[in-house]
Amino acid sequence: MNNSVDDTQHKFVSHSVVSESELPFHCPPKDTQKWNMHPKVYIQFDKKGKGACPYCGSRYELG
What we know:
This protein has one helix and five strands. It has one helix spanning about 5-10, and strands at about 15-20, 25, 40, 50, 60. The strands form two sheets. A three-stranded mixed β-sheet has the order 1-5-4, with no helix packed on it. Strands 2-3 form a two-stranded antiparallel ribbon. The chain is globular, with a radius of gyration of 13 Å. The termini are far apart.
């Protein structure tokens, strides 16, 4: 069994730009429909301004 993430899984990961006025930022974002939510988790951004959700894999970038 291969434990790596395949290309199909990568296609559905979202990427969003977050403004500094939205900090502290959490995933899922405020405008997400309730039926599609996982527990709220605050995103940690690295020195390059990039972060990812540990639940759904959504990627965020400060911009």
